Amino acid sequence: MDQLTLNNIQHTEKLKNIALVNQEFLDGIEQLKSQQRQTVLEYRGALEKRKIQQFEEQLGVTH
Predict the structure, then answer these.
(1) Structure pTM?
(2) Which domain of life does the UniProt lineage start with (predicted)?
(3) How far apart are CA 38 and CA 35, in angstroms?
(4) Residue-wise over 9-22: b if at least 16 C-beta within 10 A, else e?
(5) What CA–CA distance (Å, rounded) separates 31 from 51?
(6) Does residue 59 register a pLDDT over 90?
(7) What is the full DSSP assignment across 1-60?
């Protein structure tokens, strides 16, 4: 193999490694987005539950 071919192979391997790192980064971002959505849903649920409790307290409802 000549030097140009060797250089091309090396650069191709470097690009593959960069692509793998980029994909891992993007996967990490998607995981964080998913966790954030779950946290928002949990917060909304807790907020709604608290609103219901406050309304029941105003009405004098006990469980």
Answers:
(1) 0.66
(2) Bacteria
(3) 5
(4) eeeeeeeeeeeeee
(5) 30
(6) yes
(7) --HHHHHHHHHHHHHHHHHHHHHHHHHHHHHHHHHHHHHHHHHHHHHHHHHHHHHHHHHT
